[in-house]
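worker-3 :: picked TIR domain-containing protein
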Amino acid sequence: MATPDNQLISPASSSWYPKWDVFLSFRGTDTRRNIVSHLYTALHNAGIETFKDNLELQKGEEISSALPAAIRDSAVSIVVISKNYASSAWCLDELLDILDCKKTNGQLVIPVFWYVEPSDVRYQKGSFGEAIEKHNKRYKSEIVEKWISALVEIADMSGHHLKEATDEEESSIVHKIVAQVANQASPNLSHHNEHLFGMDAAVEEIYKRMRMQSNEVLALGIWGMGGIGKTTAAQNFFDKYSQEFDISCFVEDIKPNSKGGIPLLDVIEKLLIKLGGKKEYNVPDVARGIKRLKGILCSKKVLMVLDDLDESIYWELLVRLCNSFSAGSRIMVTTRDKNMLTKLGAHMSGVDIYELKKLGQEDSVNLFSYHAFGKTMATKVLRELAIEFSSYAGGLPLALKVLGSSLCGRTSVSFWKGQLRKLRQIPDMDIHKVLRLTYDELGDVEKAIFLYTVFFFVGKDKDEAVQIFDSCDFFPDTGVPILEERCLLAIDEENKFRMHNLIQDMGMVVIREESEHGKCRHLTLGEENPCKALQALKELDKIEALILDLTTATNRQLNVEIFEKLSKLRLLEIIGPCYMHGSFKNIFHKLRCIRWDYCPGRCLPSDLRPQLLVSLEMPNSELTTLWKGAMSLVNLKILNVSWSRRLKATPNFGNAKKVEKLWFHGCTSLQKVHPTIGELGNLKHLDLNGCKQLIELPETIGQLTKLDYLDVSSCVNLTRLPEPITQLTNLSCLYMDGCRNVKRLPELLGDMKALKKLSARYTGIEKLPDSITQMKELVGLYLSGCKNFTKLPEQFGDLEGLERFEACDTALEELPDSFVCLNNLVYMILWSCKNLIKLPDGIGKLKLLKEINLGYCSKLKRLPEDIGKLPCLEELDAHYTAIEKLPDSIGQLGSLKRLKLGCCRRLTWLPDSIGSLTSLVSLHLEGSGIINLPDTAKNMRLQCLTACTTELWLPVIPSLSCLKELSLSDEGHGFSSTKPFSLSKLLNLERFECKNLGSSLPELPLYIEDLRVQDSTTLEQLPDLSGYKQLKRLEIRRCISLQVLPLLPPHLDRLVVSECKSLQNPPDISLPKELRNLRVVDCSSVKSVCLEERLLQAPITANIPNKEIPEWFKYQCNGCTLSFHFPPILEETYSGLALWFVYKIINIDDPRSYIRAVISNETQGITKNYHMDVPRDQVGILQSTVGCLSKNFISLEGGDRITISFQSSLYQFWEKAVGSGEVTVEMCGVHVITAV
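worker-3 :: tokens ->
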């Protein structure tokens, strides 16, 4: 039967698209900080979008309407029923809505009975009966009857039951729930709040090509045109499989964050943050950043996804890292440039290319319909038009998404047909013109926000941009959401604006077209003389946003009178030093934002009056005084002068009282904070980190009642926090790390009840005030490095919200008994507390504890007997302690993954229960006193084992078939070399380290990747290693009888030979083609190593005994400094510089030292520092260090005069210099590396 044209039908074959995968219903006071917290985290880590009311409700949103809507928009509801669940009328109303959705939408409902009996719920006994009695007194009987029926219904459902008297752990229940949701609800999972049509097949193909079961290091390039869904496919694979790796990272938008900087540093810092698990990483230079990355990559199985890698500079980074990945690691990149993938394949094996195809017709229609119709019903006519729109988009997901979003909410058939006619006029489906249709439908204000964002705010903080938009009367509260709804703009997890490359390209096309038609509102000037170009332009009165890039400018002089003609200028960015002169009186009247890195001026002009200025960003400036007097900046909200190292004081804020955020980070000369800072009633963020000369904070700081974030870290001359600081009742984060002269905290610190994080590491604090126990919201407390800190308050356990406690390297002797009342504690880090004698009994009450670190607590003799009652404990580190025995209960730690007991000399045996640790993957016993093993040790499924007493472990090792890393040592036990043994059946073994094993090595599996031999004093020769094709790292140390090295394998990446006194000949490094790190030191008979020029292509770093620089090094001289002119003939083929210096150590002060190579391009006025490590093994003997720089490290052009000097440097640690001894450079050389 035909359907009438106006009949409503649902989009995408009547499918229902849930917004959320899971809705969590729970009684907050009972479960928010325990099972619900664990469950939410586990669901999130599994890629399951979960609604939890305290996280997902938007500010100002009505709870009464939002929660039922969230329930309806969820595929699954998990109801956590606890003791006081029924006492909440709100929870019971939620339950009614959940059960209603079960009947109407077929929603999956999973009950979890958390330490309650289902029969008590069914028959309203105990607390449930008491709750119903109270409700009968307050609510109508018909309402209470509905609640009772709901309790009966939920109690009769099959669910999960956690009981007091059972061995089943909470973590086990959580795992089962997540598995149930993933398995039963997978057809409905929403994946990042949008339905992803056609992605399942793509993810399945990626999985197949990734060969996840293989131990090889593999790379996959996802290739395809822009907008085809490369990022979406990669993100979905990452979400689904990242948990199968030790560490993982997904890095989006691999592009420079700022012009004129070192773009590689941005990417390296992103990778270090994501892989290293730190909030921030300060990388001084590219070389050391890569070294840190390699240290992480070589030790863990990694999944690294690099999105949108289309610039060669970043591919070169990946090439430098590709041989550092440990076995089983996977690298995935997305790119539009297939040639880049081909280049990568030339440098590493195992690179596959997957061309992502366009969507088929059905998926195209469904994706378009999802964005056009949402969950509303569509008429048949619109449905048919949707098919035509989808057909024209040609299967390109970005076009389908943007076109669909542009029609969302439009019900007029004539409008749809009109849009389709416009679309058909675009030749060959030009994607920019397709996207342009959506832009053209925007209102004038939304267009302005879009173009400002394209030009000035991509990658910038949303809140700061919104304040500027608001000052321009752009109404961002409605305009920004509209751009999000139209898929033209996104906001990332760091609250920064993000935009698809094609959409940004389309926006730049619009800007260029405006300029061509005499409406130039956004202008970028660069090249040699942007200042002169600006002065030559006409119609400057139309320009609203201007970027002057002086990075390569030859003329940096600018008469500011030119700005009188820019009467509409709102946004100004100057990149690099610019010397302005003239009167500022009649300019910048409409300016809202100034960004100016490296401003050379010493003070803002006194006649500058930007009354509408909202944001002033001038980092790395030469300012000594920001402004004199009280400059009238009545609308200023953001001020950033970080790293302005000459600035001596903050300005008078008397006429800038709207400021909300202040950055003085790294202003090392700052001595005073002006007392008018207390007049900033709206200030939320104050950063004074690294203000080394600052002696005190003004008393008026206590007036900043809205302050949320305060950082005074590394203010090394600060002696105290002013008492009024305790009046900051809204402060949530206080950082004071490295304030070594601060001895005490204010007595009334506990009045700061909103404080969530207090970090006072490496300060002089000796104790905490008792009032700190009033901080119920405190989540993280960091006291590591407080050498004089001896005692915690007796009522420390009252910190009921505390999740992380760190007090490493302090003088703590014991923890108070109340410590076991910290019910929400997850991390207890007490590393190197050398006075710590014991832990409190009752620690088994800390049910959420995941990590205990007691390493180097050398006086600690025992672990609490009830430690086995910690259901969530994953890591226990007690190495270098005085522990004599392990509690039998340790076998009950069902979640324990890592156990470190190395160098526990008094520990002589392991309990039988050790074999019950089924989750244990890493066991460290090196240097311990273990003399016997229980039979149950064979039951362990270890992946990493470091052990002493080889004979003791030999019967056990063959049963440990999962081993990936094995370290054996017979220090002091005298293992007989007449008892050869084999490890060849350990097929998963990747790394083997042995110490003092006698005159021969065991037979190794062919796929070993890392071999380290130490202190084998009778070992005279090694087996032939040339057949070990996967061997990448070989280290041989202190094998004093070793006379000759074998042939080396072809893919060796790192070779270390140290203190092998009998070695007669240097290693033959002619076979390894990928050698990147070579170290041959303190082998007295080896006088030099033949370093071939081809190895510079790797590139290589080397420490070798050579006393001279080879002749093929083009430029060299005696002493520590040389100069040369860069040859123009090498400009096209230049790929980097090799540095070589011959040095002598006069005396040893500290082994951690380096030589700083200062590279200056005197022609271009650029200077860079490159740090090169020097081994400290030998005093008074000439030796060499070699390092290589990529071409991107410093700009070089034909004819440039280059000077390089090598200087001995000091390490810095919390502002304290660490000596490097005396090192003299006798000879130095430079060689230009050219592409092969």
